[in-house]
């Protein structure tokens, strides 16, 4: 689990990121989870956008993505979800 201080730090890093995935009408599926896992391995910190036609609540989507990818949910802000997962091969972010 991340501490409050670590989450604040990650939020500040994520502020400048653009969402690289979008969850739409189909919701979360296995293919999407695999792509997000790969992106997390490469980048550690990503943003996912929840489109207006998504039938699930954004918080449900966030929980599903975090569980399905083994990532930490950093924040849900507006229609954006920020996820973090420490990468073993490609570590870039140093948490205190």
TrEMBL record:
Pfam families, per this entry?
Answer: CRS1_YhbY (PF01985)
Domain CRM, by residue range, is: 1-96
Listed A to Z, the keywords are:
RNA-binding
Q: Does the keyword RNA-binding apply?
A: yes
The residue range of the signal peptide is none
KW Cytoplasm (keyword) present: no
* Source organism, top-level taxon: Bacteria
Q: Which Gene3D superfamilies match?
A: YhbY-like
- Which InterPro entries does the UniProt record give? RNA-binding_CRM, RNA-binding_domain, RNA-binding_YhbY, YhbY-like_sf
Q: Name one GO molecular function term.
A: RNA binding
The record ties this protein, via PANTHER family, to:
RNA-BINDING PROTEIN YHBY (PTHR40065:SF3)
Q: What NCBIfam families would the database entry show?
A: RNA_bind_YhbY
According to UniProt, the name of this protein is Ribosome assembly RNA-binding protein YhbY
Q: Which gene encodes it?
A: yhbY
């Amino acid at each position: 689990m991340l501490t409050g201080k670590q989450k604040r730090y990650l939020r500040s890093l994520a502020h400048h990121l653009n969402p690289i995935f979008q969850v739409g009408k189909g919701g979360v599926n296995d293919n999407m989870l695999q792509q997000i896992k790969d992106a997390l391995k490469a980048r550690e910190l990503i943003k996912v956008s929840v489109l207006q036609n998504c039938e699930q609540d954004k918080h449900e989507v966030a929980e599903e993505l975090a569980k399905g990818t083994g990532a930490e949910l950093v924040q849900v802000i507006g229609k954006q979800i920020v996820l973090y997962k420490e990468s073993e091969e490609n570590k870039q972010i140093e948490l205190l």
